[in-house]
Write a structure and sequence with these properties.
heterodimer, A: alpha+beta, Uridine Diphospho-n-acetylenolpyruvylglucosamine Reductase, domain 2, Uridine Diphospho-n-acetylenolpyruvylglucosamine Reductase, domain 3, five-stranded antiparallel sheet, four-stranded antiparallel sheet, about 30% helix, B: alpha+beta, Ubiquitin-like (UB roll), 2 domains, 6 helices, 5 strands
């Protein structure tokens, strides 16, 4: 037994879980546990209480709302990876999930857990930030929510307060007919932590002009970043325009440096991956049939 | 804390501290030593077991979290005491193991894969065992073992048990105290080609 002793509590309702989390600052929520349990095993975390939220019905399930897909916090990554609704409505999430950990960790790890953990190189927070998802929170005072961009504040840091937990992630669903996704990452080994990653989602009109675009990079700074490439709207996403737009916004972005990769390397890789991601997204969108076109 | 677990098709109870992992509980309380303790923090995959038919790391789940799931260990794969499952036999045939430490995890990961697909590509096999580290073989013969097992299963006329969560990988006559049974049963058996 490597972890320090703790008390294990499985509340019956979300309200009870929030009360337990609010009542003891040494209490931690556990769901899939794929990041928390290694921390416990290495005694980097020593909570007095573990509040198991995995089986709370309020946190489960995937449902559609107007222009959005709400993915319950305890949705297993492996379930999300195979979910037809996610594949159809939030293709960016479906695209990155095979890159999250390994099959055995995805079978236990949850979508909400990856969000709450806020690893700067994690793929699910990158999707949330890039698409401008809304993070739904359960608090002792009832439900609340905030944009992903405000939720993540640094490496493994979020604005989440004691007594709160992520209840769901509300991903926007683009309504355009021709949508494409591009994703690339560079890591030491497949499924290891990314030194840099880039995710793009584009929508094209019938003429192949860009009518909507989102680009985000992960692993570069201390959190996932959405980059403003709005100058590309209305263009055909030709290589020169894409390069110009990506360089303009990414050439001087903050980047972290460690023994795996220098800041300069991370920045350069992120720019290259960003360009490739947009190109891949454009190609995918361009291959979609022109439904409703004459 | 008292926990009631379903392991290899049998209901078992244990009195464990909350901090006791499923891995330690399987090994120490139930004497199912086939799940190996390697890194004990979720990197190596030696402790892989099946939970509702899907591979998970038993060092990253506490026994108190594991009630209500159908847990399958390597001891639960063989059709009967003294026999080997098709995948276990394929690992022997192709020399898919040397020291054997990673082997139970490899076989359970492969078992879950072959429940989902009868004709896995090499890439699918590599992905399926990507969470299991082997320091001896270099993986080539392990991949070969899974391909060999897949080919045999296709010819075996046994319909894939398959289908998603809820599948208990174990037969009803799986050995109760796996490691002891396995030791007794280490007699030569005729290999059907």
């Amino acid at each position: 037994m490597k972890p320090a002793p703790f008390e294990y509590i499985r509340p019956r309702s979300l309200a009870e879980a929030c009360a337990l989390l609010a009542g003891d600052e040494d209490a931690r929520a556990i769901a899939g546990g794929q990041t928390l349990v290694p921390m416990l095993a290495m005694r980097l975390a020593r909570p007095a209480k573990l509040i198991d939220i995995m089986r709370l019905p309020e946190l489960a399930g995937i449902r559609t709302e107007a222009d959005a897909l709400v993915v319950g916090a305890t949705t297993r990554q492996a379930i999300a990876e195979r979910d037809p609704l996610i594949a159809a409505q939030v293709p960016a999430l479906a695209r990155v999930l095979p890159w999250v950990g390994h099959p055995p960790t995805r079978n236990r790890g949850t979508v909400g857990g990856s969000i709450a953990n806020a690893d700067p190189s994690a793929e699910i927070p990158l999707v949330a930030v890039t698409l401008g998802a809304e993070i739904m929170l359960a608090t002792p005072d009832g439900p609340s929510s905030m944009p992903a961009d405000d939720f993540f504040i640094g490496p493994m840091l979020t604005v989440i307060a004691p007594g709160e937990c992520v209840s769901a992630v509300k991903f926007p669903v683009w309504q355009h007919k021709r949508i494409g996704v591009g994703f690339f990452e560079v890591s030491a080994r497949r499924s290891d932590f990314a030194f840099a990653s880039a995710l793009a989602q584009v929508a094209l009109d019938e003429d192949g002009r860009c009518i909507d675009i989102a680009l985000g990079v992960g692993g570069v700074g201390d959190r996932a970043l959405r980059l403003d490439v709005s100058p590309l709207l209305g263009t055909r996403l030709d290589a020169a325009s894409v390069a110009e737009a990506v360089h303009a916004v990414a050439a001087d972005m903050e980047a972290s440096s460690d023994l795996h990769a220098s800041a300069s390397y991370r920045r350069r890789v992120a720019m290259t991956l960003g360009k490739r991601a947009i190109e891949q997204a454009r190609t995918e969108a361009g291959a979609r049939p022109l439904k409703g076109a004459a | 804390m008292k926990v009631e677990l379903r392991v290899n098709g049998v209901s078992r109870t244990a009195d464990v501290e909350p901090r006791k992992t499923l891995l330690d509980t399987l090994r120490e309380n139930f004497l199912l030593n086939g799940a190996h303790a390697g890194c004990e923090h979720g990197v190596c995959g030696a402790c892989t077991v099946l939970v509702d038919g899907e591979p998970v790391r038993s060092c990253l789940i506490f026994a108190v979290q594991a009630d209500g799931y159908e847990i399958t260990t390597i001891e639960g794969l063989a059709p009967a005491p003294g026999e080997l499952s098709v995948i276990q036999d394929a690992f022997c045939e192709t020399h898919g193991l040397q020291c054997g430490y990673c082997t139970p995890g490899m076989i359970l990961s492969a078992h879950a894969l072959l429940q989902h697909t009868q004709t896995p590509s090499r890439e699918e096999i590599v992905e399926a065992i990507s969470g299991n580290i082997c320091r001896c073989t270099g993986y080539g013969q392990i991949v070969e073992a899974v391909q060999f097992a897949a080919a045999r299963l296709q010819k075996s006329n046994v319909p894939p048990q398959h289908a998603g969560p809820g599948h208990p990988g174990a037969g009803h006559d799986a050995p109760e105290e796996g490691v002891l049974e396995a030791a007794e049963a280490d007699a030569p058996t005729e290999i059907v080609r």
